[in-house]
Amino acid sequence: MKREIYKFQGITEMAARLAADFKAAADKKAAAGERLITALSGGHTPKAFFEVLAQPPYKDGVPWDSVIFFWGDERCVPPDNDESNFKMTNLALLSHIPIPESNVHRILGENPPEEEAERYGEVISKFIPGSGNGFPRFDWIFLGMGDDGHTASLFPGAPTLNEKEKICVVATHPQTGQKRVSVTFPVLDSGARVSFLVAGADKEPVLRQILEGEGQQLPYPASMVNPVDGVLEWYVDSAAAPWLRA
Description:
7 helices; alpha/beta; 19% strand; six-stranded parallel β-sheet; 9 strands; Rossmann fold
């Protein structure tokens, strides 16, 4: 695994860099006659990134026909619910760009959780080529990190952290009890490029432990992501990582 860390003064600068990197990746795939297959994240930081992509020069400059969107996790709510990751992405990005509807594969949060975890896993499996370990290999997976160190909907101490066979599982938020559908570690670890987007001072204590404790066993799911045959990237802002040099 190769690890890269990029530090920015704030979320605006980070979002601008992410948008430029995204266009470069999509352009490269399109030039080769291929598609950029991505898994998106919810949260405040990805929203800022999506809002930049929704504006010129990216709105009409990205080869959207060659971009495929999946999600890494979703709350078990309807797509018009304010807690829906899909709704956030739709409002911030999808409704503003000329992407074919068939290129967008959302998690159906309105479905019964167990049924949806199985269905979405099958959709991913059929659509995305497998890696050496048999799990689908996304070109680019975007992840957030909670102040408790969770990522996607993989929470500290949850039994879902030990799932080795399924593509998707049903997760339960430890405080609210809300059900969610999430991809598993074998999927994250099969990604060609896995990028954490982390901003805000509330993330600093956990982020410091993860970045400074590489190779150590930590209780945070975000520290357990290990794309063995891929690149692990951390896009962080100065509030989340004040000790890092820019």
